[in-house]
Each structure stands twice: as structure tokens, then as C-alpha cells.
Design a protein that fits this description.
With about 700 residues, the chain is mainly β.
Length: about 700
């Protein structure tokens, strides 16, 4: 069954009438047959003009019906082709049809011809003359009839059709274009189509030796390659097969109103001549498609298989003097075996013109895309925080080499603004990436001061929800005021891995003006990103993803009036058996301390010290001692160890008695120092020389 291909690009009229196919038009529109015997005839089954490597070529098929009781020899007949100007074109039979010399009684036989024609030839300008050899004639032949197109030929050409039954190896095969898309990038488009083929016969057949092409509305021809299932050539009865077809980098002007998908078969005529003989043409309307949006699934096929792509969400996150655009892309597939990751490139197109490059960050611990599972990527780009835009298009590409990339999909995303999910105090935020299951939540806040400015620390309690040991995720955070001012923080992180259900204390600290009102402050926190990966232990973050706003607890403002069970971080300390000893140059303050630690938490004591301060109540004598906790950077540094220990704090001063004007009372205070600033935890006033409990 032969169909059209179309002629040269400047013959746009061919879009209205390009092929004649008897079986696809109304019976009243079919061309008249030529009688060759009382019950036998020759009729034009199909005809088309198409461009080939050898110039424009006319292909047509004649059907000979033998209604007689004896065999008819086709060697007795021939066909000539003329145009309306009288020019003659010489047709020749395809090699296989040259072997079909006879038409048995009661049978029909098809004969397919080809004939070179000139570039200006239109199908409707041609007519066919059937002749019979006549040895009694001077010309040795006799014209027995003509087949002509009517003056208004448009009614006899093939109708618009997106699905057809085609004979493949004498087996009827249904062919239908079920999907199409055209991704546009700059001045080019990348058409992709799905051709569904179904064997409607009783025997299997092979789909081999066929070529596929796309003819644009202007008549230009572009080859289509099979990107998926090209190796599956065996068609079983009633088992559909989807072929993914793709053309690369067509000019955008080629999209037009309609495409023709042309299916042809390569036939060797001579050692010097090979022809792609048209088999059928499927019409595809190129009516404008709506770009997929959030939640829509787009299929992408490459040599590895067919992927399903979906954008789950788009975030606009605050980042210093910029904003981070972050889209959550999920990748899955329906194949039996795992597929490798495409090498993803991406960019955002804002308001149809501004391109913002995006980095693809894999957020699941996976080496490929397993069957039936979903793997997530975050596509991260940055824009100035003051930049407004209304429309966002996300363009995904598969990097084929350093200089080549293929469009995978384009998503139209809704306008976005900074509106982060709010996590109420008492609730936890989860990290759900495969192999990274973690929960975290604020535990407490602390304000430290040096008298000139304040330092606000937010402690997060992080727990490992995996069944294996797991590193503490790298997080980035900002403090956000009710009027959207943003303060960057420094992290004190834990580098040890956590056992299953293990916990760590991670803290973020930001310097604030002295006396800053912390009411309504929230912590903006997300997973740190460096280049195109989640940040590792020693990486410096250049963006973050999956950020949320977390409500913070109220700071415990009260200072303990006793020195027992004073809590800070994961520690608590108790001082007891305090006493003093004094002479003219030396003061000794004796005490016993009991330092306890919640060992279930992994912590980091960098920048953290404990200060015990002695102050005479009626004089100007003040002294303090700083202690590292558990370990110290230098052997001469003073440290406190876990458990109960006696300690003697010695103060030497030649003018000691002059500074102490009264020996009535003194005060011991405990401070927690963090990053050079301190917070008063507890104070207790005691009598000189008395021994406390």
C-alpha cells in the first residue's frame, strides 16, 4: 500500500493534494479503471511524487484484476506516463514485480512502478496510458485506455489519517501515531513521536528494512531515527509495539500546521540504484500543545531506555543577596532492568528570555534508576533576590558529549515566591532521600554577649532514621526576622557518623546587634549543596535545597541561684564543698565539681568553654578561670573531666588584702562561653571561710 511523501519544498500546493490512494477515499471519488477483457481491468491503486537522492521520483501501483477463466499475461501490457504539457516519463517495474509475469484466473496482482520526473512535477498534472502490444500495428502497440485525474483533483487525494492498516510481508499491520512533542530550543525544534504498530494478522512478521522520515508542512523532508525498540523487529499477532522516533534540530519554522510521517522500504534496483519506496504516510496534526506543568509526566527515550520525568515542586529560597531556584525532578521507568542516570543539564528560562543555568544535584543515594522506584534530583540556580519574573520554563537536556546535548523535556512552572513550609516548634523536619533518612528539630536557643553585640545560637537535635550508620547531613541556615531580614549563621557541626536512631546536637549561631529583639525569629534551614552534589564534610556550601522555616523555642531567661545541676548543651555541672583560704598574697577557692554528659548525643565542643568566676561582694576583687570540656588543645590548658573531681582555684596577687575590703561574702558564678561570648548560667553567694554542702 503506497502513500505520499510530498515534493520539493517550494511546491506548497502539494500539502493539499499529494497522493492518490484508492482504498482511502470514497468509492465515488476513485479513478476509472481500464478494461482489458470482458471481466478484467487495470486500475490505479496508489500514486505519489517524492524527493529521493536521485531527484524527484514518481511511484505508483497498478492492480490487475483477472475475472476470466484463463491466465492473463502482464507481459502483453505496459503503461506510459505523461504530464499535461505532453512530456513523457518512462516508468520501470520494481525488481520483485518483474517476476510476476502472469495473473492467474480469478486473482488480483499489484505491480509497482517508479519513474524519474522533473522538479516542477505535481501529481495532479500526470496521467497514465495503458497500452497493449499489437504486432499488427505499425507502432507494435495499441492504447486501450487512460487514467486521468479530474480538473479539480483535490477530492481524489488521500484524506487526513493518523492510523492505517499496512501490509508488511503480506501481514496486515496497524500503524498509528499515538504521541508527539516538539521541544523548542532557540531557533530549533526536536520532534519526537511514538509510532504504535500492531500485527493484525494470524502469523508473525518482521519489521525490517524500513526507513522513517518527517515531512514538514513546507514539504521539507527530515529523517527520523528509532531511539527505542529499534532492535525489536518481530511483530507477534495482536502484540503492540511502540517505536520512539526522533528528528534532531529542525528549524523552528518547520513545525507548521501538520507533519507527515513517511514510512518507506529500501529496495535495490541495480548495483548503482537504491530506492526508498513509500509504504504509507501517517498524518500528524501539529496543533499547539500545552507544555507540561508541575506533576505532569513526560517520557524521554535514549539508547538506554525510556525514562519518566516529573517535576514535583519549585522553590524560591533566600540565600544571602540572592535567591535560589530549586525544582524537584523525579526520574523513574517501567522497564525490567535498572537504567543508568542521564547526564542532566538544565536551565530556567524566565519570562521567555532570561536563561539561568541550573545544576542537577542527586538527592538519593543510588547508582542508577532501579525498576519501579523513583530517584530525585534538585535543579539549582540562582538569581538576584530583587529580580521579579512572572513565567518560568524549565528546560532539561541530556549531555551527550562536551559539545552536544539533546533536549529531554520542558516544563512550564508556576510563578513562585519565597513562601517556605513552616515547621511549628515541637514538630520535626524530615530528610527523605534514599539512604539519607534523617529528622531534625530545634531544641533550644541561647543568647551570648560580649557587652557590645549579641550572639544567638540555635541548637538542632538531629536523629538518624536509617538502619545503618549515617553521616549527619550538612545543613545551611539563616535567621529570619518578621520583616524578612536575613542573617547568615555559622554552623557547629558534628562529623561523627550516627548509629541507627543515634542523635547529634548541631548548632547555628548569628551575630546580632546588642539587645536585638529575638521575638518572632525563625530559622530558615535546608540541605547544603556544593557544585553538583550534596555537600560533604569539608565542603563549603554554595546553595541549599528543601529549605523550611522553623519556629524557635523561647529562651530560658532565668539564671539559677544555686550551683547544682546547672545544664548547658548536653552537659550539666554541680559545684559543692566550696571553701576559701587566704593569706596576704594568695587566695585559694576549693570546690568539688561533678560534670555529667548525655552521652547518647554526638556533639562538637569547638569554641565552647566553661567559666567559673570568683567575685568579692564588697570589694573590687574579681577572678575567673576558663575550662575546656573533656579535652583541651594544649597540655597546659585547663580542662574539666567527666565525673566528680576536687579542684583548687588559686589566685595570686601581692595586693590581695588591699583589694578585699571585707571578708563577709563572695559570689561564685558559672558562665558558658561560646565563640568568645558568654552567657551567665548560675550564681551563688557564700560566706567567707564557710564550707558549703
Amino acid at each position: 500500500m503506497t502513500a505520499t511523501l510530498g515534493a520539493v519544498p517550494n511546491q506548497v500546493i502539494l500539502a493539499q493534494g499529494e497522493s492518490y490512494k484508492k482504498d482511502e477515499i470514497d468509492e465515488s471519488m476513485r479513478l476509472s479503471s481500464v478494461s482489458i477483457a470482458p471481466h478484467s481491468k487495470i486500475e490505479l491503486k496508489n500514486a505519489t511524487v517524492m524527493p529521493t537522492d536521485n531527484g524527484n521520483m514518481l511511484f505508483f501501483t497498478l492492480t490487475v484484476t483477472n475475472g476470466e477463466n484463463t491466465t492473463i499475461s502482464f507481459l502483453d501490457y505496459w503503461v506510459k506516463v505523461y504530464n499535461k504539457s505532453g512530456a513523457e516519463f518512462t516508468p520501470d517495474l520494481l525488481p520483485l514485480d518483474k517476476q510476476k509475469k502472469d495473473i492467474p484466473a480469478g486473482q488480483q496482482v499489484d505491480y509497482t512502478f517508479y519513474a524519474p520526473v522533473n522538479d516542477a512535477t505535481l501529481l495532479q498534472d500526470l496521467w497514465f496510458r495503458i497500452t497493449r502490444w499489437d504486432y499488427n500495428s505499425a507502432d507494435l502497440e495499441k492504447a486501450i485506455g487512460d487514467i486521468r485525474f479530474p480538473e479539480q483533483a483535490s477530492d481524489v487525494f488521500a484524506p487526513e489519517a493518523g492510523n492505517k492498516i499496512v501490509q508488511i510481508g503480506n501481514v496486515p499491520v496497524s500503524m498509528e501515531i499515538t504521541k508527539w512533542s516538539a521541544l523548542q530550543n532557540d531557533a530549533y525544534i526536536t520532534p519526537k513521536l511514538t509510532l504504535k504498530v500492531t500485527n493484525k494478522g494470524q502469523a508473525s512478521t518482521k519489521l525490517t528494512g524500513y526507513q522513517y522520515a518527517l515531512k514538514a508542512s513546507n514539504g521539507a523532508m527530515y529523517p527520523l531515527e528509532i531511539t527505542v525498540n529499534g532492535d525489536k523487529q518481530q511483530l507477534q499477532p495482536d502484540v503492540p509495539l511502540d517505536l520512539q522516533l526522533k528528528a534532531s534540530q529542525l528549524p523552528a519554522s518547520a513545525i507548521g500546521e501538520r507533519w507527515d510521517v513517511v514510512i518507506s522500504q529500501s529496495i535495490t534496483v541495480t548495483s548503482d540504484l537504491k530506492l526508498n519506496v513509500p509504504v504509507t504516510t501517517l498524518k500528524v496534526s501539529t496543533e499547539q500543545q500545552t507544555s507540561p506543568a508541575l506533576g505532569s509526566v513526560v517520557e524521554y527515550a535514549n539508547k538506554d531506555g525510556v525514562y519518566q520525568l516529573k517535576v514535583e515542586k519549585l522553590d524560591r529560597l533566600p540565600w544571602d543577596d540572592q535567591d535560589v531556584l530549586s525544582a524537584d525532578l523525579s526520574i523513574s521507568h517501567n522497564q525490567a532492568d535498572a537504567l543508568p542516570f542521564p547526564d542532566i543539564k538544565a536551565y530556567y528560562e524566565l519570562d521567555g528570555g532570561v536563561k539561568v543555568e541550573a545544576k542537577a544535584v542527586k538527592t538519593d543515594r543510588a547508582v542508577g534508576v532501579p525498576p519501579g522506584q523513583t530517584v530525585h534530583f534538585q535543579l539549582v540556580g540562582k538569581i538576584p533576590y530583587t529580580y521579579p519574573f512572572a513565567a518560568t520554563k524549565l528546560v532539561l537536556q541530556d549531555k551527550l558529549s562536551d559539545s552536544a546535548a539533546e533536549d529531554m523535556a520542558q516544563f512550564m512552572l508556576p510563578p513562585t515566591e519565597i513562601k517556605l513550609p513552616l515547621v511549628a516548634f515541637g514538630e520535626q523536619q524530615s530528610i527523605t532521600g534514599a539512604g539519607r533518612s534523617t529528622q531534625y528539630a530545634p531544641r533550644e536557643i541561647n543568647t551570648y554577649t560580649d557587652g557590645k553585640s549579641d550572639l544567638l545560637e540555635v541548637q538542632l537535635e538531629v536523629s538518624n532514621q536509617e538502619k545503618r550508620s549515617n553521616a549527619v547531613p550538612r545543613l545551611t541556615a539563616f535567621l529570619k526576622t518578621p520583616d524578612d531580614a536575613l542573617y547568615p549563621t555559622k554552623i557547629r557541626e558534628v562529623k561523627q557518623k550516627l548509629n541507627p536512631q543515634g542523635k547529634a546536637l548541631v548548632s547555628f549561631a548569628a551575630k546580632l546587634p546588642k539587645g536585638f529583639d529575638t521575638k518572632g525569629l525563625r530559622l530558615v534551614v535546608g540541605e547544603s549543596v556544593t557544585e553538583q552534589r550534596l555537600s560533604l564534610t569539608d565542603d563549603k556550601a554554595d546553595a541549599y535545597i528543601n529549605a523550611v522555616e522553623m519556629e524557635l523555642p523561647v529562651e530560658k531567661p532565668a539564671v539559677s541561684t544555686g550551683l547544682k545541676d546547672v545544664a548547658f548543651d548536653q552537659y550539666s555541672i554541680s559545684l559543692s564543698k566550696m571553701s576559701t583560704w587566704l593569706d596576704s598574697t594568695q587566695l585559694r577557692v576549693n570546690f568539688q565539681y561533678d560534670l555529667k554528659k548525655d552521652s547518647f548525643f554526638e556533639t562538637n565542643n569547638d569554641g565552647s568553654k566553661l567559666i567559673i568566676q570568683f567575685a568579692d561582694m564588697n570589694g573590687n576583687m574579681t577572678y575567673e578561670q576558663k575550662y575546656y570540656l573533656e579535652s583541651a588543645p594544649d597540655k597546659d590548658d585547663v580542662r574539666m573531666e567527666l565525673g566528680e573531681h576536687n579542684y583548687k582555684m588559686t589566685i595570686k596577687d601581692s595586693d590581695l588584702l588591699g583589694k578585699i575590703q571585707s571578708l563577709k561574702q563572695y559570689k561564685l558564678s558559672i558562665f558558658h562561653e561560646f565563640q568568645g561570648m558568654r552567657k551567665l548560667l548560675a550564681s551563688q553567694t557564700m560566706d567567707w571561710f564557710a564550707i558549703t554542702d
